[in-house]
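Researcher: I need the complex structure. Ligand is manganese (II) ion. Inputs:
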Amino acid sequence: MIIQYNTGISDEEHQSVLAKLKVWGFRVQPNPGSEGTTPETHIQVDNVFGPVTDLHRREISNFDCVRQVIAIEGVPQNLALLRHGKHQAVTLPNPHGAKPVHIGGDYPLTVMAGVCAVDKVHTLASHQMAKRAGADMNRGGAFKPRTSPYDFQGMKEEGLQVLCEVREEVGLPIVSEILDVRDIDLYMKYDVDLLQIGTRNAQNFELLIEAGKSGKPVMYKRGFSNSIDESLKAANYIMEQGNENLIFCLRGVKGIGHSFRNQGDLDEIVALSQVMARPIVYDVSHSSGKKSAVSGIGNMAAAGGVDGILLDVHVAPQEALVDGFQAIDSEEELAGMISTWRKLRDLARGSAR
Ligand code: PEP
Ligand code: MN
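Model: Output:
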């Protein structure tokens, strides 16, 4: 279980809870990240390990100094993801653009929109369109993980070059998927603002470690065949390298007879925000694989309080190199969606968290 305390509790109050846990023989891991904050904002958190039952949780909840007790099955032993005990924002400094971009915490919904695969002809216009419609960031794949070796694998380094040239014009930070640990230097050379770990690399631990060590913010996508417990453990590999700038992205999973490209995992927005202090993004394009579903699924994610929405856009989807069928091509529609998502997300935040 995880114990969150009220702000400004005394050492005596804390010790009384610890004494109780000691009697029960539970191991207590104080949350290291809770140190150093001011008394007004200080939320102390203890992670407790042992054979905890509902009775234990109820008894701890009864202490006046306890804000809430969270029971989680299969919590990773090292909860780096819960550092600071409250929802943390990740800031992308955006040295190639006008101003930093924030995601998570108390900031409004962040929208990441761009082409699935970078191309020479339409990436600039697509990313400009996304910006005009209200997107905060651009996404673009240079190295593409394809199921079949006979499919286009991305423009690779040239794609990163194009992405960076487009960034100079548009001014929004970029997120791009890194496939291989050997490419870390390349992503540093092009100063990619946010490294994306794709669903197929979700348990490529060496890549997670090196991405964590790079010091760049990392967006980790849940593996499409991984449980949430496995996903949290994997994401902890990134943070364990001393990298606090982790964003967790849900994108649907393999399921049983669902209607879309993947089975949506929208409910995890609510579940994860209770056990994780990191920003959560929902990929409405790769979860659904349908242009017509993007708006509705985005509405659900926003109403669930998600921190960011990721989607594919393309000004000429019929000419897109990958995934044109799921890309939004109308600026007007996109602007309408983004505006609705922001309102729904603000409403959700008024009542939750
Ligand atoms: C992508 O974002 O382009 C992508 C391939 O996503 P995923 O790893 O979720 O399939
Ligand atoms: Mn795609």
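Model: Summary of the prediction. The radius of gyration is 21 Å.
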